[in-house]
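lol so apparently i was supposed to do this last week
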Amino acid sequence: MIIHCMYCGHTIDLSEAYDDYQGPVRCAVCKSLMMIRVESGQLRGMDAGPGAKAAPAALKARPTNPG
Ligand SMILES: [Zn+2]
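anyway here it is w/ zinc ion bound
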């Protein structure tokens, strides 16, 4: 199944082993940890992992850097 990183939007391709799974998944791009819940191949829930440094909304706000 395919999920999208809640932080950077990267496509994460999970194997069939995750069709019934509840636990952490780490994004290979931004290294963020997410807690997902999958039932019968359907994503039922996604939350920020316990070690999340910043909320997803905060990542969108980039400081301006003139010059
Ligand atoms: Zn990511």
